[in-house]
Amino acid sequence: MLEIENVSRSFGSNRVLDGVSFTVGDGRMTGFVGGNGAGKTTTMRIILGVLASDGGTVTLDGTRLTPADRALFGYMPEERGLYPKMKVAEQIVYLGRLHGMSASAAASSTADLLDRLGLGDRANATVESLSLGNQQRAQIAGALVHDPSVLVLDEPFSGLDPMAVETVQSVLTEHAATGVPVLFSSHQLDIVERICDDLVVIAGGTIRAQGSRNELREQHSAARYEIDLASDAGWVRELPGVRVVELDGDYAVFEVDRGPSGEDAAQAVLRRALETGPVRRFAPVLPTLSQIFKEVVR
């Protein structure tokens, strides 16, 4: 488990990180989200040892990180860092060799990754000849080539089309499934919501929310329900303790107070619905990551 505890960092009088603490669990895909300037990249650079913190600790399995530990990490910066004139496979092999791999091991890992990422037929093309999306895939291969013990990716899905997102997602989740902690940042909240196990939301250099996807949705959900009937749902407005948010013929979204009285009111809606005829759907309405994000960064 990768643990960031009470990490702070200032640049001059500008305090960029203020007591940042969160964990990235083994085998977990952890989405790290925040607006521009929120502190995501600075946090990642401190994890990698590229920047020093002013205070706090970064540990792996309870032990402070050493340069040797960090040499086993995989990192993909937001900025493209490949050599444009090199051939793709040569570039990835070179990065593997920098991590101490033998030439044969680096070549084998490179060939496997390029095939899995859909770049097998571009192995001998120069990096600069690739589309921006394919350059992004090549950078991901470079972060993975040495089978890293921790994976830190800054905007890995930037510039990728939907099919490429699916390909990259598959490769990353396979790597996480081996027990590796994976931390990735992204502005594409729909992608984060779909693929992550855990979420960390940062704003203004402080952590505003963290937890599993389901935990956060439950914590930040209003007592809101949706009901879909086989007949008109207008009667929902007449029941005590119920506030209709949306009504469209046989479909309604309504809110109740939190707590036992609200739960009783919701169950009263369901009982009345069953008396009127078939109920196609009755379920709580959970917020999206985008809605949670807007709520916690206000």
Automatic annotation (TrEMBL):
Domain ABC transporter: residue ranges: 2-229
Family affiliation: Belongs to the ABC transporter superfamily.
Keyword ATP-binding carried by entry: yes
One Pfam assignment: DrrA1-3_C
Subcellular location: Cell membrane
Membrane topology: Peripheral membrane protein
Organism ancestry: Bacteria, Bacillati, Actinomycetota, Actinomycetes, Micrococcales
Protein name (Swiss-Prot/TrEMBL): ATP-binding cassette domain-containing protein
Molecular functions per Gene Ontology: ATP binding
